[in-house]
Amino acid sequence: MENKRLNQAVEKLKSTGVRMTPQRYAILEYLLSSLGHPTADEIYRALEGKFPNMSVATVYNNLRVFREAGLVRELTYGDASSRFDANMHDHYHIICRECSRIVDFEYPSLMDVEKEAAQKTGFMVENHRMEVYGLCKSCHEAMVR
Questions:
Q1: Which family does it belong to (predicted)?
Q2: pLDDT single digits (tens) 12-45
Q3: Which of 1, 31, 117, 134: disulfide with 86, CB 3.0–4.6 Å?
């Protein structure tokens, strides 16, 4: 499945004129295989051994290219660093207030809320974001010990 998603992402980038460099391919592969929501620094640290000449700026620039192509979402929560999510399907996030772990979860789309908001306010609604906060199981268990 991951290979199919990777190939589709590469083709999408190529169709928009983006040249596939080894670094770009590795960053994209890392994002698509990541179960977490890594920061640019985490991606850089994971790949720096394989690409010693790659800079953090290279990672940021490639993430911007991927975002503009619709391949990743940039998640900004509070003052923390942006995190990146290659899961482009409708889903929501629950965030641990202690360790900042982010976990995806499915929930019926909130499109009705968007329609209601548009009708009541006259706004042209573009999107929505729902975040749920709490303690992950590990942090909760550490606190009750």
A1: Belongs to the Fur family.
A2: 999 988 999 999 999 999 999 987 899 999 999 9
A3: 31
Annotated binding site: 96, 99, 128, 136, 139
For each of the domains in the chain, give its residue range(s) and CATH number, in order of start.
2-85 (1.10.10.10), 92-144 (3.30.1490.190)
Strand pairing partners for 132?
A: 94
Binding residues for Fe cation: 128
Binding residues for Zn(2+): 96, 99, 136, 139
